[in-house]
Write a structure and sequence with these properties.
mainly alpha, 77% helix
Length: 157
Amino acid sequence: MPLEHIHPIIVHFPIVFVVTLFALDLFAALRGRAATGKGDAFTTTSTVNAVGAGAFALLAMAVGDVAAEIAEGKGLSATVAQFLETHEALGSATAILIAVWAFIRGWFWYKDRRVSGAGAWALVGVDAAILALVVATAWFGGNLVYEYGVNVAALQH
C-alpha cells in the first residue's frame, strides 16, 4: 500500500471518536449527570473516546504530513497547493487541540474529577468547537481528493 493512502484510512478514527465524544457529553449534560471522572462505564467510555481521539488525531497528523510531502513532490497547481496548506494548518491545529483535550479529559478521569451541571455544558461547548474544526478540516481534505484528485490514481477504463 502506498504511504499516501494511510492518511485517508487513519483520519476516520479521530472523526468518529470526536463525534461520539460530543454525543456522550451532550447526553450527560441533558441528563444532568457527570461526563467525567471514574465510577461508571459511561464516564469511562467518554474518557476512552477523548483519549482515542487524541491518539488517532496525532497519528493522522503524522501520516498526513507524509501524504502532503508525497503530493507536493508530484507537483501541485497554486490553487491545490493553497488548499493543501490550509488543510495542513487546520489539521495540525485540530490534532494538537484534540490531543490537549484528550490529556485534560484523561486527567479528569485519573483524578476522579466529576464535571456536571454548567461544567458539563462547558464540556459540550469545547467538544462542539473541536467538532467544527474537524468538519472544516475534513471539508478541505475532501476537496483535495474529490475535487482535485490529490494522491488518487487516474481512473482506469
